[in-house]
Amino acid sequence: MSFDGLKWYKRTALMYAIGTWTLLGSCAYYTFYNSDPRVVLPRKEEEKDPSPNVRIMKSSHMTSEITYKEHFVPYSTRFLEFFRPRADDTSGSRNDGK
């Protein structure tokens, strides 16, 4: 039994074509025929002055609100502080000041 590449290629192309047109057709159907114009999403009242530990991120599709702890320090800052040299560092020679 030999492998027929041309037959395999035609069958695969047909499968992808059917899948693509099915996807596009279902998207068009749900967009144009199944949409309900009576559905109105409630709008949330925006706060005028959010607290400093609340971050609100908005995009065209979503709104996300992140609330941090009171004295929150990000892990990247903690990591960098671990390697940052200190002003009161005594790792040098102790006889420099005498």
From TrEMBL:
Entries under PROSITE patterns matching the protein: PROKAR_LIPOPROTEIN
Segments traversing the membrane: 12-32
Keywords for this protein: Membrane, Transmembrane, Transmembrane helix
Entry protein name: Small integral membrane protein 26
UniProt organism field: Silurus asotus
Upper classification of the organism: Eukaryota, Metazoa, Chordata, Craniata, Vertebrata
